[in-house]
Amino acid sequence: MKTDIDIHNHAHFSFDLWLTLIKSHPEFKAKRVELFSSFFKIRKSIDEVARMVKYYDDLCNNMNELTGGNIDTFEMYLLILGSLEVDIKEVNKETLNDFYTRSEELFLEYKPIIIFKNLHDFFKEIKDQGKTINILSNTGFIKGKTMRKFLMEENLDQYIDFHIYSDETNCSKPNPLIFQEVNKKINHKKLEKDQILHIGDNPIADYKGAKDFGFNAHLIKH
């Protein structure tokens, strides 16, 4: 991915993750559907399970962006299970935690692909100028704690000053409260809002959300 991001006229850089820096491994989603189906012993076809997983993934993402809230990963699991005629009264939190652990292992085996060209070099250039970086990402099936593990494995965490994920703040972009979290974290630098640049691919959640809050914004176009 070619970038024309202006790093010279900003002091802090906030990055979205999905479809900005990374994209899913091409095999991961199908593998996750297979795991979901077998783990919960679902008596529907794989195609039907895949359809419902995608439906609720998209629905919850859209709801989070619309309301500014955050639908929990386990709530997403239960919605999918209910739609597939699984008795959710037979599911407990320990089971959900066990499945999440298994899905996290799968995620780290079929790791996302970095799509931002020369990302290490770009982050290093920012840091070499004495500037700071954060990750600001809405989450769904993949929690912030898992994204941290991935970024550590990719040796990208060395450049990142802090992370903000919607499952940890209980609010999602474009909610101004999540951009306020960025502002709070860098308050010690006493920066003006227009010295902060948020970079993302979503015209509403990233670009408009950041601009409405007062940050500068850069829209990644695919």
Automatic annotation (TrEMBL):
Signal peptide range in chain numbering: none
SUPFAM superfamilies: HAD-like (SSF56784)
The keyword Hydrolase is assigned to this record: yes
Keywords in alphabetical order: Hydrolase
Pfam families: Hydrolase
GO molecular function, one term: hydrolase activity
NCBIfam families: HAD-SF-IA-v1 (TIGR01549)
The protein's name in its UniProt record: HAD family hydrolase
Organism: Chryseobacterium nematophagum
Organism taxonomic ancestry: Bacteria, Pseudomonadati, Bacteroidota, Flavobacteriia, Flavobacteriales
